[in-house]
Amino acid sequence: MPHRLSSELDRHRQRKGSDLDEPLLADFRVGVDNVIFSVDTDLQRLLVLLVMRQEEPFLGQWCLPGTLVRNGEALEAAADRILAEKIRVQNLYLEQLYTFGGPMRDPREAKDSYGVRYLSVSYFALVRYSEAELIADGVSGIAWYPMNQLPDLAFDHAKIIQYGHCRLRNKLEYSPVAFEVLPEVFTLSDLYQLYTTVLGENFSDYSNFRSRLLKLKFLEDTGIKASRGAGRPASLYKFDAEAFAPLKDKALVFI
Amino acid sequence: MPHRLSSELDRHRQRKGSDLDEPLLADFRVGVDNVIFSVDTDLQRLLVLLVMRQEEPFLGQWCLPGTLVRNGEALEAAADRILAEKIRVQNLYLEQLYTFGGPMRDPREAKDSYGVRYLSVSYFALVRYSEAELIADGVSGIAWYPMNQLPDLAFDHAKIIQYGHCRLRNKLEYSPVAFEVLPEVFTLSDLYQLYTTVLGENFSDYSNFRSRLLKLKFLEDTGIKASRGAGRPASLYKFDAEAFAPLKDKALVFI
DNA sequence: ACAAAAGTGTTTTTTATACACCCATGC
DNA sequence: GCATGGGTGTATAAAAAACACTTTTGT
């Protein structure tokens, strides 16, 4: 936030490019990068959405879908915009992740060195895999990558993804994000598989997971049964947001 | 992060100030604002450091200590710099909080409207009250304000403080930040008082708090006793960082 | 009939909560 | 000696973890 005299700001503008020893204020381009996660429960894979860079620097390398922020556009609006450009979804969860803004994180800073800095406000998103439709514009590459098979990434995007992965794991444990990714109705095994896919096999036993969740009373049994191949058909449940509301601020554990 | 063609960037620069319907990239001033907390255990008060604004806008109003980011300066370095300008401390805890970047959060955006946006990357800090020495430069006001008696604040700084307060409460519960604020050696009541001051009276019973903490085995009893007025003298403990290290990633609860 | 998946229950261990009580010091 | 704050222990309740077992389907 600004606390400098506006006269100093003016001096800064005049002197731009000069090499005085007095430190100058940096000029920023602010970008937004989305770490968009999805879970393929069938293949038990945690996926991240990547796009292929169409220009320099890092032309031809994979990176996170991002954009520069426009005039009059809120940060989250920019995150929404780039997301909507790449993917069609009905439901999504989106929140700010972290701001990466060290100098030299973008090679353009060095090259044309107008003193322009590139700052990235990263966002974390979770979308429903089954209903997520990728928008391929014919030219640019776009694909889901499994978290354990990420390619080389442009900029510091590998770091951003790691950060997002941490957040996802934590979110799962103490907040109901899972229900943003699951279909309207789902079986408890669906839910369990989602958790194991993200947190790993050994986070909890199925039957304990099950009883813990049901004791919280915000999963409503629709009574409808879903038969998937062999085995006993499972009850379809739905998340009851109203029943969850009073628990919102409590430190509850889903694991 | 930048994904636009550099040619578009050039067009943007030429057209700056024109009113075409095509959306233009925003030019950003990036500031850093610190929410610096401290705990006065004697008076049982949670404090925030505020400074008086010396210029327009909001001249004469209290706000968070902040600064604009300089050329070649990392965000956290800017946060460190402004902190060091206002306060002398040996120990501190500093981490990024959130980035506030909606349009019109700074009145200067509207007034001189070069399309310049003011973005604030906020940082969260915790300092030891007893050893924190405020730097008064004679002109500018600077003061600790109790969280429950905050004055009117410039910009959206009240919101930023609320956000920081949430973070502080959460941090206390699952991470050892408390030991950053306490002196090298401290009594368990000191620690307990710190927790009650931040979290409120009814978070836990003293004796349970005590045994829970001691069971974690990272508080070392120095054997030295501290007598403070009446009552039995208390043992002085010190935080053992090595003993804590293996617990670092575990989801442990301090409350 | 039997394998596969869903769902229930039981036992053991650990942790949380609410207290009651003893200890060491200053006045 | 007694108020004051420090420190220990115990009894009860609740939660986590491990695992055995029953139920309902497809083949």
Q: What can you see in these coordinates?
A:
The structure is a homodimer of 255-residue chains. Chain A is α+β, with helices and mostly antiparallel strands and 255 residues long. Chain A folds into two domains: 27-163, Nucleoside Triphosphate Pyrophosphohydrolase (Alpha-Beta Complex), CATH 3.90.79.10; 182-247, Winged helix-like DNA-binding domain superfamily/Winged helix DNA-binding domain (Arc Repressor Mutant, subunit A). Chain A is built from eight helices and twelve strands. Chain A has helices at residues 6-15, 75-86, 108-111, 157-174, 178-181, 188-199, 206-215, 241-244, and strands at 27-40, 45-52, 62-63, 66-68, 87-88, 92-100, 116-127, 133-134, 142-146, 185-186, 219-226, 234-239. In chain A, the strands form three sheets. In chain A, strands 1, 2, 3, 4, 6, 7 and 9 form a seven-stranded mixed sheet that branches. A three-stranded antiparallel sheet of chain A has the order 10-12-11. The longest helix of chain A has 18 residues, at 157-174. At the A-B interface, strand 1, strand 4, strand 6 and strand 7 of A face strand 1, strand 4, strand 6 and strand 7 of B. Chain A binds a DNA duplex (27 and 27 nucleotides) through residues 187-189, 204-208, 210-212, 225, 227-235.
Overall geometric form of chain A: elongated
Binned strand content of chain A? 25-35%
Overall tally of domains of chain A: 2
Multimeric status of the protein: homodimer
* Total helical elements of chain A: 8
Low-pLDDT sequence parts of chain A: 1-22
Provide mean pLDDT of chain A, rounded: 86
The description of the largest β-sheet of chain A is: 7 strands, mixed
Task: Briefly note the structural class of the backbone of chain A.
Answer: alpha+beta
Percent of residues in helices of chain A: 25-40%
End-to-end Cα distance of chain A, whole Å, is 39 Å
Order of helices and strands of chain A: HEEEEHEEHEEEHHEHHEEH
Per CATH, the class of the largest domain in chain A reads Alpha Beta
At the fourth level of CATH, the homologous superfamily of the largest domain in chain A is: Nucleoside Triphosphate Pyrophosphohydrolase
CATH topology of the largest domain in chain A: Nucleoside Triphosphate Pyrophosphohydrolase
DSSP strand tally of chain A: 12
CATH architecture of the largest domain in chain A: Alpha-Beta Complex
